[in-house]
Description:
By secondary structure, the protein is an alpha/beta fold. It has helices at about 15-25, 50-60, 70-85, 95-110, 115-120, 140-150; strands at about 5, 30, 60-65, 125-130, 155-160. Helices cover about 40% and strands about 15% of the residues.
Amino acid sequence: MTEFVTIGVYGWDAETFFRALQAAGVDTLCDIRRRRGVRGSAYAFANSQRLQRRLAELGIAYVHRLDLAPSNATRQAQYAVDAATGTAKRQRQIISPAFADAYRQECLVRFDSQQFVADLGANTRVVALLCVEQEAAACHRSLLADKLAHDLNTPVRHLMPDNHA
């Protein structure tokens, strides 16, 4: 049975980020970001090429699933809510209902959880769903995780900088 964890980038440094993946037993990282770069030198470890290189060194497979990233229009709708509430992206605690609805419609309506697991391969045991927000509830990865948990009847753990085991 495949297990799932989620992880963001914000709040981690490279050492603790990769240590958390290892401690969770992650063998596959599924990157669900549209833009696979993160601004700021503190987060350079999460830029695609560096991330893939380090994961390979650790024996963790890397998969990019652009089809699971929200569209630019959906992201812009969330940014508008953030601006209206005066919330900085890195401080967001929860996504808006409009964003959640749009993401479900564009990415999850036709998403097949069983096929997703099959595509990852029979030897995949622990998958980390990666995006940037620190709080899972502030990110689309929580919506994907909820769908996987529901469809596959499996728990999902959210790795956080302060509880990474």
